[in-house]
Structures are given as structure tokens and as C-alpha cells.
Amino acid sequence: MTAPSAVKAALSSQSIETPSWAYGNSGTRFKVFAQEGVPRDPWEKIDDAAQVQRHTGVAPVVALHIPWDKVDDYAALARHAEERGLRLGAINANVFQEDEYRLGSVCHPDAAVRRKALDHLFECVDIMDATGSRDLKLWFADGTNYPGQDDIRARQDRLAEALAAVYERLGEEQRLLLEYKFFEPAFYTTDVPDWGTAYAHCLKLGDRAEVVVDTGHHAPGTNIEFIVALLLREGKLGGFDFNSRFYADDDLMVGAADPFQLFRIMCEVVGGGGLGPGVAFMLDQCHNIEPKIPAIIRSVMNVQEATAKALLVDREALGAAQSAGDVLGANAVLMDAFNTDVRPLLAELRAESGLAPDPVAAYHRSGWAEQITENRKGGQQAGWGA
Ligand code: AOS
Ligand code: ZN
Ligand code: ZN
């Protein structure tokens, strides 16, 4: 068994990135439910993220979404984060929300629309320069709805051209993270539908282009941990967009639907040496009906619990059972770790870092919810269901 001190050290080094849009009002295509005390601007989203960090100690990074988080002075926003013990993480581009993008953005048949999309991506890199962000996260809503609507290969060429131009614009320390999604909003073809397409483009671009695995972006039954293992092995796993899904891209709290899957993913991360700064552990969630800050705290804890269990896997015993062809023995080693209650270990770790053992309870006691309900009226909508 891995020593608890080693498990704790590894856990303390993990940093989980929370998305600015999870703090804003969100909903489905049917209804956006406004909640009380929701941030009115990006500055207040960062204030809320600071509460998540305050009680968990492992969520010091906040991802931004442009234009949902548009401000005049991004360096000032980065300072605002820094003053609260945070830093700004991935800049998420948005080339899906304007009328021109009906037939796509960087894959659109019209060069003028492609140009507009590319200009937005360049603007995002300018913002990264101002915020000190390392990662540009690209998710494209591009695709087609009907066979014959557009040329599949030509769209790949246009995609490759845009990606190359953005990659070229990046600084030495910056990365391009390409996210895939098997469908939605396009229903026939999607231009980056799977890890293989994302990987092929990233491979051509170079070392600083890597793939993002959004756990909600796969067909039911997909073995996500296999994808994770493979991408890590190839040095191409840039990060995660963690969330849970029951049906499609549900964006529910990570670890809520299938904690065992999250554990299996984290086992591959730990086994593949991915528990370091090279892999961004981002959340991509929307809290439509539940209170947002406690839900984000819960999500961070779910990732931490899965990571702790993955770290507890007795690698030596597992290796021995695997080499001996001991199918049941190897499976038992994994299940022992999964079935371990890691909550006392995590409570101890928090106490050692001067935190309360139960972050959700500590948040409720802090009075922050009452304060924002009192002081903030007319909270901002996150965009549409992210
Ligand atoms: C969309 O389905 C993707 O998950 C995106 O990562 C994301 O939620 C959105 O673009 C917010 O940045
Ligand atoms: Zn995502
Ligand atoms: Zn998504």
C-alpha cells in the first residue's frame, strides 16, 4: 500500500481549475433559472472561486470564457485573482454564439466567416498574454446536419489551416488545447468529433498542442480511461473538462453519475505519470438547479476523492498479479482501493493545511451565501448551457 504521507503529498500538489461560467446562471434550452447572489461580472465570479479555494485548498485556478468574461483590463482581472490567492487558467474561446456561425466557424465555407473566427482566437491569445494564462482551450461547434451539406475533407483542411495560424501565434510557454465532442450542436458530422481527430491535428501542430478530454463528450459505453492512457502515453493529454453525464453532454457535477469511472480515469492518470502541471484538471459544469458554490466545492472534493483512491492502489501488488496472469487478484487490488473510504484521510490532510475537515459545511458556516444574496442583485447569465 502507498504510504499515507506520499498520498497526501501527491494530493496537495494537485490543482483543480474551476470554470467562471459555473458561477453564473445557467440552464437548458428550456429555461435558465436565476439564483440569488449570483455574480454580476467576472470580478465577482473570481470572488466566488476564491471561496472554493478557501475551503478546499486545491482549486487555485479559474478558467475564463471570452466573451462571457469580457473586461477592459485583463491584467487588472489577473491581479484581482492574485489578490485572492488565485490565478487565471485556460482561456476558453467562443466561436459558436453569433449568427455568422450558423454553418460553422473556422470550418465555415465562407472565408470571411473563417477570418472573423480566427480573429477571435487571436484576441484570446492576446488576452492570455495579459492574464499570464498558459492554455488556450478550443472547442468548436462546427459540423453539419445533413449528408452532402458540406465537404468533410475540405472542412478538415480549413480546420487545420486555422489551428496552424493560432498555433503560430502562441508564445513559447503557451499551449493550444483542442477539445472534441461527438455531437451537438451538429447532428450529422462534427468537425472534431473524437480523440483521434483531435490527436491527429495536435500531432501535426507540434509539442504545445494537446488534447482535452471532456468526460461528457463520448458515446455511452466509451472506455474513457483507455483514451486517457493512450493520450498520456503519447504525451498528448493536455487536460480534462470534468463533469458527469447520464445521457449526453449533461454537465452535471463530476463524480456524481459514475464515481467508479472517475476513479478508473484517475488510475490511468496516476499510473501514466499525469498527476502534474502538464495535465490541467478543469471542471466544465453548469449548476442549473443546485446552489453553485457548494456544488463546485463538492465537485472539487469528488475529484480529490477519486485521486486519493487512485493513489492508494497498491501498484506493486497490482503489477505482481498482472504479471502472474492473476485476473481476479489484479481486479481485487483495484477494487480494494476504490472501496477504501478516503474521507478521513482527506479530512486529516485539510486539518494539516489549516482547513476545516468538511469544506461544504465550512462554506455554509462562513456566511458568504448570505452576504452575496444580500449584496448582489441581478446576477449574470453564464452564456447558454456550457
Ligand atoms: C462544449 O460542449 C464544451 O464542453 C466546451 O468546453 C465548453 O463547455 C464551452 O465552450 C465553455 O467554454
Ligand atoms: Zn468542455
Ligand atoms: Zn461540453
UniProtKB/TrEMBL annotation:
Keywords: Isomerase, Manganese, Metal-binding. Transmembrane segments: none annotated. The keyword NAD does not apply. Its EC number is 5.3.1.14. InterPro entries: L-rhamnose_isomerase, Rhamnose_iso-rel, Xyl_isomerase-like_sf, Xyl_isomerase-like_TIM-brl. It is an enzyme of class 5 (isomerase). Residues 72-245 form the Xylose isomerase-like TIM barrel domain. One of its GO terms (molecular function) is L-rhamnose isomerase activity. This is L-rhamnose isomerase. The gene is rhaI.
